[in-house]
Amino acid sequence: MIGADAVPHTFTPIATLYTCFKEKFGVPRQMNLVPAAKGQLVFDPAFANMDAVRDLEKFSHIWLIFVFHQTRDKTWSALVRPPRLGGNKKTGVFATRSPFRPNPIGISAVKLESVENSCDGPVLHLSGVDIVNETPVLDIKPYIPWADAIVRADGGFADKRPASRLQVIFSSEAQTQCRKMTKQIPNLASLITQILENDPRPGYRAGPTTKDKKIYGIRLYDLDVKWQITDGIARILSLDPIK
Amino acid sequence: MIGADAVPHTFTPIATLYTCFKEKFGVPRQMNLVPAAKGQLVFDPAFANMDAVRDLEKFSHIWLIFVFHQTRDKTWSALVRPPRLGGNKKTGVFATRSPFRPNPIGISAVKLESVENSCDGPVLHLSGVDIVNETPVLDIKPYIPWADAIVRADGGFADKRPASRLQVIFSSEAQTQCRKMTKQIPNLASLITQILENDPRPGYRAGPTTKDKKIYGIRLYDLDVKWQITDGIARILSLDPIK
C-alpha cells in the first residue's frame, strides 16, 4: 500500500507577499513574534478578484501557505540543527519548521489588518509576518480558533516562547537616521527593536552572556541596519541605505 | 510588482495517509472533532527514514500539509457556500476551508499518538483526522503551541465550535453487526457515534428540527453504514460490508 499517490503535484502561486525582510537573516523564527513586521499580499491577476476574499475581513488571523523560495533549490537532510536547541543538537527535519525540507512549503498564521480594494484587485495588509520579501503564496485560509488553537498541545523542545530577550538601544547616529526615515516607515524603530529583542543570531552565538564582538547586519526594506551586542544589550550602530 | 514569482512549483508527496474515511461525505469538517478517527501515515520509500522524524514524538500534535486529491482536478469558484452558513450564503473561497480551491492544499493539526519503527520505515499513528483515505501528504511540521494557538483570534462566522449535536443510537441489528466487527475495529461504535453527533449532512438539511426521512450512507473502512434522522436522533440502521 506504500506510495499509492507519489505522483508530483504542481501549484501556481495565487499571490506574492511583500515584506520588510530582504533576506533570511533577521526573519522572526515564528509568526507574531514581531508585531511591527508588516506585509502586503498582492494577488496574481488571475486571482485578483474581490469575490474570492469576501468575508475574509471578519477573521482576525489568516493562514498563508507559501513556498520557501530562497531555499527551494537547496538540498535537504533528514537531520537539522534547530536554533532552539542551540544550533548544535540534531533533530529530524519533520520535527522542525526548518525551511530546508523535502517540500519547501511554509505555513504561517498572521494578523489580517485590513483588506484593500485596490485597482489591481484585493491587497491584504498583514502584520506579525515571519516571511521573506517576494514570497510566492499558494493558498490563504481563515484561522479558525476553536479548531486551530490547540491549547492543550505539548510542544516538545519548542514548548515555550523563546525567552532570550535582549535590551535594544539606538546610538545617537542611528537615532538621527531613524528619525529621517519616519515619513516612509513610521514604525521603523519598533520594527528594529522587536526584531533584535528576539536575538536573530545563530543559536551557537545567542544568549545575553556570550562574548560577541561581531558587528551584525540585517537588511530591512532598503536599509542596511548594523548592530553589536555588548553585555546583553543590542546597540544599533547605523541605518544606511543599501547601495 | 505583481506576479513576481508566478512560476509553477512542483512537489512530490513524502507520504500517504490511510484513514477510515473512504469518501468525502462524513469526513469531519475540522480536525479533532472526531477523536476516534484514526489514521496511519506511511512514508514513501524515498523518505522512509527514522532520522527524519527524530524527536517528533515529543510533540502531541503535528501539522499535515496535504493535497485534496479527490477534488484536485475539479474547477473552483471565487465564491463558495460553506456548510457553516447553512449552505446557502456565498462567501469568498479564501475565507473558507473548502477543498475546492485554486491550489487544492489542505492543512490539518492532528494528534500524534505514536511513531512506529516498522520494517518499511516510520509509520505515524494519528487520531482526530479529518482527511479522506489515501491522501498524499506533502509535509509534516510540529504543532508549536505558543505560536500556533492564537487564542485571542476572531474566527468570523466560524468562531464557535459547531453546536448541532445529534443524539446517536444503534438499532439492534446495527448493534449486532458492530459487535461482530469489534476485533478488527475496536473503536467502531465510538467512531460512528462521534461522526454522526457532528451531523455530516449538507447544511441545508442539517439541524435537529428539520424533517428528513432520507436514509444516509457513509463508507467507513470497508463498511457501508446506513442511518436515518428522526426528531433530532440519528439512528444507525445497518453496517454492511461493501460489496
Automatic annotation (TrEMBL), chains A, B:
GO molecular function: methyltransferase activity
Domain TsaA-like: 11-152
InterPro entries, alphabetized: TrmO-like_N, TrmO_C, UPF0066_cons_site, YaeB-like, YaeB-like_sf, YaeB_N_sf
GO biological process entries: methylation
Pfam families: TrmO_C, TrmO_N
CDD domains per record: UPF0066
PANTHER family given in the database record: TRNA (ADENINE(37)-N6)-METHYLTRANSFERASE (PTHR12818)
Protein name per Swiss-Prot or TrEMBL: Putative methyltransferase, YaeB family
Organism: Desulfotignum phosphitoxidans DSM 13687
